[in-house]
Amino acid sequence: EAGVAQSPRYKIIEKRQSVAFWCNPISGHATLYWYQQILGQGPKLLIQFQNNGVVDDSQLPKDRFSAERLKGVDSTLKIQPAKLEDSAVYLCASSSIRGGTEAFFGQGTRLTVV
Amino acid sequence: AQSVTQLGSHVSVSEGALVLLRCNYSSSVPPYLFWYVQYPNQGLQLLLKYTSAATLVKGINGFEAEFKKSETSFHLTKPSAHMSDAAEYFCAVINTGGFKTIFGAGTRLFVKA
Question: What is the mean pLDDT of residues B81-90?
């Protein structure tokens, strides 16, 4: 089965610019996650979708970050405007609807804000 | 709220030596626990998971972990380290009935020749 696909793999932007990341989860996975992984730290959950509804966005900086999951499949994460501290790897993951199952991760998008 | 603590941000072992990476969890309900590995410039890959069946869990690449409720621990071990084991390892917890995976800060494993 195909894994979680993310694009782009790398992105360099200037501060105050906007950027968008795309994620296509594993087919049939109802739950989709966006994580932010700052260098040297563990992944931090930004937002979690169940189908196309938001389950948890408590750690999403909503003044600059937004995310959507159209039709319960693909998802996009946007940052506008970007700050230097947004430099990180953004990981998308998905899991099946059954509770307690592991998340499958994409390769991530490495964002550098200069 | 669930959480995990990984003891030691860096661990260095010699090739062929025992690998021990420590993880303690906090959960008010029986947890589901995971170990993930991350190689440079890659996403996270599942090594093994505990889902309240056997307390000793065997994973890929010769790794295993033991769930100890009395110690709230889920340490990862491998009898003999290989150079290819050098990577970042993350312990994670998800509460039963929930869908949120919470990660520890990670432990970077170095393997010396």
Answer: 96
Give the nearest chain B residue to A42 (CA atoms).
Answer: B105
CB contact under 8 A, A104 and B46: yes
| A64-76 pLDDT tens trace | 999 999 888 999 9
Minimal CA separation from B105 to chain A, in Å: 4
Identify all chain B residues contacting A55, using CB atoms and an 8 Å cutoff.
99-100
Q: What is the pLDDT of residues B10-46, one digit of tens each?
A: 999 999 999 999 999 987 777 889 999 999 888 899 9
Q: Are A50 and A59 in contact (CB under 8 A)?
A: no
- A2 SS3 class: coil
**Of residues A42, A106, A110, nearest to B90 (C-beta):** A42
